[in-house]
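Notebook B, p. 112. Complex prediction, attempt 2.
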Amino acid sequence: GQQVMQIPQYQHVQEGEDFTTYCNSSTTLSNIQWYKQRPGGHPVFLIQLVKSGEVKKQKRLTFQFGEAKKNSSLHITATQTTDVGTYFCAVRGSQGNLIFGKGTKLSVKP
Amino acid sequence: EAGVAQSPRYKIIEKRQSVAFWCNPISGHATLYWYQQILGQGPKLLIQFQNNGVVDDSQLPKDRFSAERLKGVDSTLKIQPAKLEDSAVYLCASTFGISNEQFFGPGTRLTVL
């Protein structure tokens, strides 16, 4: 079935440093979604990418969808302590359901 | 707009006992999902409803798990009997359309002793 690999599993950064998480698939994706889950919280939708090579920005967050639509990345510029949490990518399964990656857990040292 | 509601928030039971979780999706959202999230992992779909019909339950352990959404609104997920490996957070999510963003409830943290 559809799978998506997400790396790294953990990332520890100093506040102000940049952070990037990557999501890779062996098959071409129709779209990809990104979610953030704060510690003890539930996943919250960040964005959906649909087009090949698409780049979207949300303040300090930059999302990219690869040209071949097999990979995606989330980049955070100048991390803040409020960025702490686990970032998940999610792709569509055959029934329209979402298949989540294992997530990248970000910790930020003040 | 009210979000997805779930109850209880926490539940501790002993193995072989039964437990039920409840979810009320956002009003007007036809699609409802139940996920299991084991510590350190991403949410894994258990079952997907479209209105009161099941779209996908391929990963639901049907020997012990059951779910229903009788009137196409709120839903219950039951585990009977529970095993130690069922300890997880059970998340309910809803969407207006299948391809839209999913809105998650706060989840129910289940501990099986």
